[in-house]
Amino acid sequence: MLYRSLFPRDLFAELDRLQRELTRGLDWSPSIRGLARGFPAMNVGNTPRSVEVYAFVPGVDPASLEVQIEKGVLTIAGERKAEAVPENAAVHIDERFAGRFRRVLTLPDDIDPNAVTARCRDGVLHVSVARKEAAQARRITVQ
Amino acid sequence: MTDKTQVAEPRRDEATLLPPVDVIEDANGITLYADLPGVSKDKLRLQVEGETLSIEGELALDMPEGMEAIHAEVELPRYRRAFTLSKELDTEKVSAEFNHGVLRLRIPKVEHAQPRRIQVQVL
Hints:
The structure holds 2 protein chains of 2 kinds.
Chain A: H1 11-26, E1 41-46, E2 50-56, E3 66-70, E4 73-80, E5 90-94, E6 99-106, E7 111-121, E8 124-131
Antiparallel strand pairs in A: 1-2, 2-8, 3-4, 4-6, 7-8
Chain B: E1 21-26, E2 29-35, E3 39-49, E4 52-59, E5 68-72, E6 78-84, E7 95-99, E8 102-108
Antiparallel strand pairs in B: 1-2, 2-8, 3-4, 4-6, 7-8
């Protein structure tokens, strides 16, 4: 193992992802939203009870973030202002994103749009969307 | 400058994330901004050793138990980046602020390196 992973992986999910990426690369039918990698970077995880979305939004005031769920689509939008450059200053490296951003993610069908929590800590927005009760696996007692 | 030693020393060959930075120089010093989302204040480590400034941070996310990743763009648990400073920078007077995952470092220039207008003599 070359490195530890931040996000839990599962071998089958990895194979599935690999296959999807191969298909996208070979068959020219990419996702309609493109192979978006931009600002903010996003991680998405699944649990039996919820969908967990992490958006990496450093330097964005949490109060200015727009988080919306409409028709099963989660949108995260906002703006990050460029740092002020004093007069007669030289910008040697300029890699950080600045400007307006918007990222859109299709959520699974079984989510409950009324049971959403959004928290922001250390520049990471964490949106947790619960799944509908009915969709959760229930243990059935055999009589 | 704070040196927080509670962050475990990483192995040299460990793969890390490269945080994006902005570096702006004015007459009195250099300001560096680095994006380190997911790093809490106590997991950030700044160090000046000789002429090398290194920035390291460990990421942590609140993940519910049993979560499976379905899509990941940030996959490694650590950021690392190093810069070589030059001798006119005063490493004794570096100040740092860390807010909402953005580090702002100010490295002033040593007194004698501060600007002086040089008179051009016309012969």
